[in-house]
Design a protein that fits this description.
The longest helix has 17 residues, at about 150-170. It is built from eleven helices and two strands. The protein is mainly α. A hairpin with a 3-residue loop joins strand 1 and strand 2 (about 10). About 25% of the residues are buried.
Length: about 210
């Protein structure tokens, strides 16, 4: 591991001569190319998250592919939670001094959107709650309607399964989870048509 002084997560020390993308390969990628303790996996993911604004646009797609691989891989739940937190921050990062989302261009590719949506929805299937649902919302927020519409039937079915679970638990899910659930459901509905989300959606208002 190579240490160097930094000024926050948005700006490197002007005397730094290291290429951050090369450093990510050494610190982040290498941790998952061999068996390693969970704590070092989590800290390597934190490293990636902290230096996210230093990742070049060209390398960002590779980073997304690595995160997708980790979510789909055989790793501890704690490691996957760290990946979801990092993905959440990377999805919503903006250029310094701008309102432009850096990841928007990469997300708006049908293959990449399908892979990201599949990986995050898989986390929901495994019982991950607020972290995964927040990532799911971020992804839908950045994606153009036509990319969401391509998967709208599948996504609507999944959201109805989650809704049934919320109803069965009588609102015992975390408030943040329910908030992002409705935000995500609205984006799916607007991408296609409201009929894609059955009337069952509104019964939750009567059961919580």
């Amino acid at each position: 591991f190579i240490y160097f002084k930094i000024v926050g997560g948005t700006e490197l020390n002007p005397f730094n001569t290291l290429d951050i993308n090369t450093l990510i390969q050494k610190v982040f990628v290498s941790e998952f190319q061999k068996p390693s303790p969970m704590i070092t996996q989590i800290y390597s993911i934190k490293f990636l998250s902290y230096f996210r604004l230093q990742i070049s646009q060209d390398y960002l797609q590779t980073v997304f592919q690595m995160l997708i691989t980790l979510l789909n891989g055989n790793y501890p739940n704690e490691t996957k939670s760290a990946v979801l937190l990092a993905l959440d921050k990377i999805l919503f990062m903006k250029k310094v001094g701008s309102k432009e989302y850096i990841s928007k261009t990469i997300v708006n590719n049908q293959d990449m959107f399908n892979q990201l949506a599949g990986a995050v929805v898989n986390m929901l299937n495994l019982g991950f709650d607020s972290f995964a649902m927040r990532c799911f919302f971020r992804l839908l927020f950045l994606a153009e309607a036509n990319y969401i519409a391509f998967l709208s039937d599948t996504l609507a079915t999944k959201m109805n399964e989650i809704l049934a679970n919320i109803i069965n638990k009588k609102g015992k899910e975390a408030g943040e989870f329910i908030f992002y659930f409705f935000e995500a459901t609205s984006l799916i509905a607007f991408s296609h048509n409201l009929c894609a989300i059955p009337f069952m959606l509104f019964t939750i208002l009567l059961t919580i």
